[in-house]
């Protein structure tokens, strides 16, 4: 019975911090809105003694074509075209001198201006640029950009025997239109950076909340209660009362971010949700070492967790973290 | 009964309590007296079961059967008295019993009120002993609650005057050791002054006066307080 009393009391106290959830949601909303303004471009360039041909597609994070103006320049020769649906084709009737001569493709749109400098190693090459993507790969004969629910692929027409084709696919289960040495690991993901920044914000929110809620341990404000009802009941009761808030803080905010940008893809945000819950549990364990120490050590813990999320090199991270702590303990002792 | 057998406590190499042996029964009212840093608080914390001795043993039935009022009770300052009580029990009538307003915030409580809140938290467990660390800034209401407590009472304080009427037995501590343990009447003395000399004699004895009368020496008898006896004989030992 007393366990439920402790839980209710602590839950009542932690409810005050619902405003942190609202701030976290706002941050996610703002970040998602800013990022959804990004643009991507994918295409193929062919240079020959007949001229330079560029075809491509400019699109936003939703995969919709973006109206823009595309300018192609080669030495003093320029050619431009306007597109409303994102698709474009440009032809510059100048003789192209091979071997690393550069051409410039400038894309001006409402969201962003992009200036690409391209080199055509052979007669043709694919190119890709994206300020925000889920998956990205670019090589001479294959370029892939995945955005929210859509994947765009550009292939070299010489090798595929198709004519300046840009493919659009809507599922991961697809055969690539070209036989190239390509694995899933070739993809990079720009969403990691905003997600890590959000994670760091949530870490600081958890620290703020814990400084207020958990300082009662080192200050001895619960000592008499623990003496009478038992340490385990107070420790666990308080922990269980805090967990719903932490889960809401991390899961709701990450979900909102992911929902606006990508759609319903929990797998992408799950590591970040687990990271913030792990951080919360870790900081809880640090609380009895003192309010300030809890915050100091939580920085190391946060570093360790972020390191794991980004690189997944847990042994190096563990070693580095242990050495950090050893150095601190040595200083304290000597 | 609370029994301490050869109990010592060492903090960072310095002894706070040294080889203390005590038996405190359920009906006893004991005052633990000592100057600052004499080891009173540490001894009480060990008797309450809150601190483990470095050496020796303290035998007590159940920690919850000992109501312990620390020198400065600490509670979460932002919550109400009623909320503090809820952590332990919902028997709020104990708050009325100790004269506390349940809606008052902890941060608005005086030290005396915080001590009463400490007592109220323990009362639902029907304690056999009450341990009070320091009686400074204690109101007559709290004093009355201690007086009416049915069970053993151990009060630590730096003088005897403030707790004289609450205790029967006195334990005097100096530098972590028990230097006096006996009934409070053992601290009743008088001073007999004659010529340039003075002799301290127990109040219930008069052999000095008889001897001086026989010799025809004029003298005067001065009553001394138990605190003067404590400071004269025991405080600096």
UniProtKB/TrEMBL annotation, chain A:
Keywords per UniProt: Membrane, Transmembrane, Transmembrane helix
Entry's transmembrane regions: 193-214, 235-257, 269-287, 294-310, 316-333
Protein name as catalogued: Uncharacterized protein
Organism: Saccharolobus islandicus (strain Y.N.15.51 / Yellowstone #2) (Sulfolobus islandicus)
UniProtKB/TrEMBL annotation, chain B:
Protein name stated in the entry: ABC transporter related
Keywords (A to Z) from UniProt: Hydrolase
GO molecular function: ATP binding; ATP hydrolysis activity
Keyword Hydrolase: yes
Originating organism: Saccharolobus islandicus (strain L.S.2.15 / Lassen #1)
SUPFAM superfamilies in alphabetical order: P-loop containing nucleoside triphosphate hydrolases
Domain ABC transporter: 2-200
EC number: 3.6.3.28
PANTHER family: ABC TRANSPORTER I FAMILY MEMBER 17
